[in-house]
Records
---
Amino acid sequence: MALTALLASACKGGSSDNAGLRDSLFRSDSILKCQLEMERESEEEPVMELFTSMGRIRIKLFSDTPRHRDNFVKVARQGTFDGVLFHRVVDGFVIQTGDPNTKDTTLVDKWGQGGTGYTVPAEFAENHRHRRGAVAMARQGDLANPKKASNGSQFYIVLDENACRHLDGEYTVFGETVEGFDVLERIAKVQTDSYDRPLWDIKLNRVRVMPAEDRKVLIDKIEAREAEEATRKARADSVANAAKEAQKGE
């Protein structure tokens, strides 16, 4: 309503207040443009919030794996993830969840076999590797699935990239963890049975798309941390270079 009023007032003309109204309109346009840009970015690379029984994890989905991105958002909005368990936890490797079968204890023998009833075509990108915090979809093996299509809902998060290098080009990496590495570590340290299942339930209670305004705050925090890390590294390099120069002068 306020923006509509400004538009109407600015178009009437003849008022001594028109200049001020135009300034207000331009400011409103800038705010609107910023909001639209945030919405566009949140659609292309949405940040998803994973609310687990051990804390919150935030992951960013990649724009260049659009089928996996769109499917993950759809499945989350349908509530498929609500209440599923982390049914596979291997410290130093991955943690895995997303199987609807894990909501039913009578299906324990089929945990790890469930999904949405469809697969998602593989989307391999050279720049998306199984780095620490990478998010990838599970799938059936090559004999039953030679095209390496992904499960519709089961996904895993990488704990150690050195242990997962052999998975590059075999499983689609479609996102990365941006916050909640401490939660990943807590989950990784739980006791498990011989099937890599936690001895007590670790739930993925809900998954939602992070609101655009909260996303902006998170991005600012990440950029601040990156700037701080860059400054720390530059100082360390400076000290190391100074030490080398001192050694040369001796």
---
Amino acid sequence: MLRVKNFILLLFILYFIGAMSEFALAEYKRIYTNPEDTSSKADVIKDREYKEKIEKRETELRKQKEALENPQKKSKPTKKKTTVVGKEPTKILYQVAINDKLYISVWRVPDLSLELIVGPDGKISFPLIGDIQAAGRTLSELDAEITEKLKDYVVDPQVSVIVREFAGDKVIIIGEVRTPGIYKFVGVTNIMDVIALAGGFTDRAKLSSILIARESADPSKGRNFIVANIKSILNGKISKNIEVEPNDIIYVSRTFVSNVKEFYDSWITPSLRTAIDQETLYNLRRIDKDK
């Protein structure tokens, strides 16, 4: 009887051990192999995110250390984007014309500082160096030749050439034309004529918004502004082909100009200061007042 009891107890123990083993195996499979077990996945994701944070922090610390060890290595600053209205100011090189009155001065040599009128042959006669071709040349080219020729007579000559009085009527044309500059015209001349003198429009010109800045009778009032529409002229409206006047400033823009006064002050005036020698520009504007 005792043996039977011991045998039954042994079977029970073996059954219990087997049941626990199966339960443990099932739990192991559930935790490590069951794809629907969200709790175990969440733990894995947390571990991964934690490792990524650690690696990111280590990378930042390494970069900071390298920056301290190599202070000369600096990142390039980001360039700020700027908006440009029209194109950048073009340097206008005025070409001397026949009958222009030039003032040529040599620093500290008063005998070589004098006014000269460009003759019908396009030449001027300067002391010590004789005749020089002036017409068709820029002021800087004339300055360079006189400076070079005076070196035989003057130690380190410093020459300045300006236009004291322009021959004939002139207009300034800048912006989207092929050859911006100061142009001479004779008699009745319209806007299309002077645009042709400047080589015509570029492909980026806004033909419906050509700005003309014109001197008013009262200098204290500044300039008057006229907007010419070349498209209308090309479509047959000849009455829109405005006549130009001496010292008009004609600006061909890339975009439509709404506030012409503001545009003139903020863009055209700085462009002229960059483009033309200031004394030359002043003398050009002064012609009508002296007449």
